[in-house]
Amino acid sequence: MPKSKSKRRYQPPPRKKPKPSPKWYGVLILSLWGLGVLVVVLNYLGLMPGFSPLHVSGDTNNFYLFAGLGLIAAGFLAATQWR
User: Could you tell me the pTM of the whole model?
Assistant: First the structure.
């Protein structure tokens, strides 16, 4: 049986380079982070709607806290997809 003269290995085609993210995507990430931090800080200062300043125990509204943390988490998730 004749031997093959070619000793090349198979090379898969090169991967396509992913497209860079649009310029507004970075602004979106920073906006999500900034808005999330702002909501958390305003919640602890008692400046968000639905907060009763007469409540003696200093209890904050958990809805705003989780909404702010959710915005920060959404910013981090968006940042992982940024190119």
Answer: 0.73
